[in-house]
Amino acid sequence: FKLPSDSFKYLGWCDIEEHDVRGNQLRCPRVREGPPEEELFFRREEHTLKKRKQVTDTEKWEKRLQENWENCAELNLSFQDLGDVYQVENFKRILRRLIRVEKLWLVDNSLTDLSAIRLPRCRELNVNKNHFRSFKQLPKIPQIQHLSLAENNIMTLSGISDFRHTPLESLILKRNPCEFQEKYRQLVFSSLPNLKMLDGIPKLPEDCSPPDIRFFYKMCTIL
């Protein structure tokens, strides 16, 4: 049986009439963009989408002003259930407008690649429980201080040195395959000298890279 809310699953908050709530006033907005009516017909889901009226350029501009994502300083876009490509594209459209966001949560959204997104003021980013496989797939975050990547699928530490020139202080990589790499903590701290905390544990003396011992292997020991 369908839930009572099924008929609203493609309805965004800005499509609801007679309210003046703006995007930067929402705590946890849902990103919704439905497929065209033709596809809904073949899915037998045409009941889930209201009859679309012709939208004028003025109405499009008013909707853009109402969204007002540019003024968001903190935003939680977690658990979006982005099941359709239309929703993913609408989600990325909103991310491109977050030019002032400082704290952003994108937990459990099945995200795979945000490399085309730039978040120029973001200091804290939480992308736990997504499907990132590489640091190269993360958005551009030049001001990042706290980055959480727990429970993704990052295989190696390749690309982590790109954060060397950022003010990154805290990094969480728990439950990623790269966590099982030999000398994992030493490799992370050697790539990020300014990092203060990894996986919730402060930098320890043993996390510093030991001196290169390859020279000693070339020596012959006489007993």
TrEMBL record:
Chain ranges passing through the membrane: none
Repeat as UniProt keyword: yes
Cross-referenced SUPFAM superfamilies: L domain-like
The entry's keywords: Leucine-rich repeat, Repeat
InterPro entries reported in the protein's UniProt record: LRR_dom_sf
PANTHER family: GENE 29133-RELATED, LEUCINE RICH REPEAT PROTEIN
Protein name per UniProt: Protein tilB
The organism of origin for this protein: Manacus vitellinus
